[in-house]
Amino acid sequence: MKTHLSRVSRFVSILLLFIAPALAADRQHDILVVTSTNDPAGNAAVVFKLNPASAVLNLINTQPTGGNGGASGNAGALQFDGPLGAVVNYGSNTVSRLVREGDAVSVAGSFALASKCVQPVSVALKDWQAFVVGSNCAESHSWPDGKVDGGVVSLTDSSAAQIAVGQSWAAVTLKSGSVLQLPLSREGALSGSSSSVTLPSDANNTPLGEAFWGDVLGFDPAHSPDSLALIDASGAVFPILGPQPAYPSNAPCWLAKGAGNIWYSGNSPGQSISIFFTDSHGGAFYKSVALPGVPTDITVSQDKKWLAVIFTAADGSGARVSAFSIDRYGDLTLAATSAPIGVSAFSGVAISQ
């Protein structure tokens, strides 16, 4: 109990340090969409403000993270939880903290990966933990101070695409064809162990995006006929047939959890957002919503009313962001698309409200 209280006390003191400026600033809650340039020569966080009434996503500010980008074929490179966010710096082996103040997002320092761990590609935030996966390790850090917390997990290969966190376990998708289950300790950090989930042959080709629904993981085996699958805490797998024809025409790749039983997936070759409905043991593909380019990550707001997707525009204008409103049935209506800002491809996307 004493250890737990000390953790809480440390977390509260650090949290107040970071959010005090935000509390003193404008208290209105405009919708911000945050992504990153992923530039190998100098990564930066890019912040857009959504104005649904005028159907625009205005560029608010761009903040250098202090590290270098360079990751590819991954999701979850940038996350937000409340007023705080995190973005990975693949080329610098660091994670930068982000702080929302009014309608701006600033960078508040960074923390290094665990010893001998390199090239972070994805981060997940839950309670007072930041979970990071890179080319050779999965690790947890106390958040937001960034100290290594819990056991570091060595990876079997360098193909990690994303890390996500549920109630009792975390998951890492490996593009080589597997999903790792990483148990959590009582304190919520990684326990240091992992096990590989045995995937069926119709849902094991190129696992990429993932998201949790309670303690049930959804993930996209993107190049498989069953391009969405669920895994429960016991390791049971429930594949779901995706849009047809399957890969290479369609490949739901990047996943976000909507309200209730709804899932949204960025379908890269299909240049669309694919929508699925499930229970905890299976489900069905519903329909796809067209995009004017190739999606590379997707997110849903905490209130489940908004979806944002980053994509490389088919017209050659570079990276764009689109925001959609979500109605009570889970259907999407385009609210706004950003203008090009001279970035070839964004990495990671989050909504801050």
Overview of this protein structure:
With 353 residues, the protein is mostly beta strands. 7% of the residues lie in helices and 49% in strands. It has one helix and 28 strands. The chain has one helix at 2-24, and strands at residues 32-36, 44-51, 56-64, 78-81, 84-89, 94-101, 104-112, 122-126, 129-133, 137-142, 153-154, 160-165, 169-174, 178-183, 195-197, 207-213, 216-221, 228-231, 237-240, 252-257, 262-267, 272-279, 282-290, 293-300, 306-313, 319-326, 332-337, 347-352. A four-stranded antiparallel beta sheet has the order 3-2-1-28, with no helix packed on it. A hairpin with a 5-residue loop joins strand 24 (293-300) and strand 25. The relative contact order is 0.13. Mean pLDDT is 93; it is low at 1-6, 8-13 and 20-27.
Write a brief structural summary:
The chain is mainly β.
- Uncertain residue ranges: 1-6, 8-13, 20-27
- Computed Rg: 19 Å
Look at the structure and give the mean pLDDT: 93
Estimate percent helicity: under 10%
Strand count, sense and barrel status of the largest sheet are: 4 strands, antiparallel
Approximately how much beta-strand content do the residues carry?
over 45%
Shape designation: globular
Distance between the termini: 34 Å
What is the chains' assembly state? Answer: single chain
Biggest sheet strand order reads 3-2-1-28
User: H/E order of the elements?
Assistant: HEEEEEEEEEEEEEEEEEEEEEEEEEEEE
SS field, number of helical segments: 1
How many DSSP E strands?
Answer: 28
Q: Which structural class do the helices and strands define?
A: mainly beta
